[in-house]
Design a protein that fits this description.
The chain has a single domain (4-87), classed as Ribonuclease H-like superfamily/Ribonuclease H (Nucleotidyltransferase, domain 5). The protein is globular and about 35 Å long. The protein is built from three helices and five strands. Strands 3-2-1-4-5 form a five-stranded mixed beta sheet, with helices on one face. By secondary structure, it is an alpha/beta fold. The protein starts with a strand and ends in an 8-residue tail after the last strand. A hairpin with a 5-residue loop joins strand 1 and strand 2.
């Protein structure tokens, strides 16, 4: 697991929600997937990610996430030494 991760939720077919943690340095190539957890509820995601060795999780220096409170809580609990970098997306829809 790398030192710079990202975490986000994604909706797949038929509204299935997943939380995905990726290693940013692999740029979508082999080795970039750290975890994929069914659902987005903080307690369930924390339970699964906490199965990763604590020492490895403590090596994470930075985690990029959106402004969702759930993702902030997951990041804080699972990657206690990482700085959280939040991304605020603004979308404009033209008529």
């Amino acid at each position: 697991m790398g030192t710079h991760l990202s975490i986000d939720e994604v909706a797949l077919s038929q509204g299935e929600l997943y939380t995905i943690v990726t290693n940013k340095s692999f740029k979508g190539k082999k080795g970039s997937l750290v975890a994929i957890v069914a659902g987005t509820k903080a307690d369930q995601v924390i339970e699964h990610i906490s199965k990763i060795d604590y020492k490895k999780r403590c090596r994470v220096k930075e985690i990029t996430l959106d402004m969702a409170n759930t993702m902030k809580l997951i990041s804080k609990k699972c990657f206690p030494k990482a700085v959280q970098v939040t991304i605020d997306f603004m979308f404009r829809i033209s008529p």
